[in-house]
Write a structure and sequence with these properties.
This protein is mostly beta strands. Helix content is 0%, strand content 49%. The strands form two sheets. Strands 2-10-9-4-5-6 form a six-stranded mixed beta sheet, with no helix packed on it. It is globular.
Length: 112
Amino acid sequence: QVALVESGGNSVQAGGSLTLSCTPSSTNHCWEPVAWYRQIPGKGREFVSRRLTNGATNYADSVKGRFTISQDSAKNTLYLQMDNLKLEDTAMYYCQTACGYWGRGTQVTVSS
């Protein structure tokens, strides 16, 4: 059974930084991680960032200039560097693959 593992979530003070990682257990193209979403209890999953096949990147306006998405092809791993974290960044962060599969998420909690 293929697994998609997100890691790197933690509790951090506002203004701090975290780096999330997402690695699938399969090298099948469908399992290539390509995007990050986040969700808070009681709300729908929100787009955060996506890395396109041509290397271009998209960001939600709320994280633009603070978050950076990147990929290590050799490790088949997707990263999300999060800087200058704000209270409103508190959420469960999920990785999405090229075929729309999801991981279990990693919790990010930002406190004042």
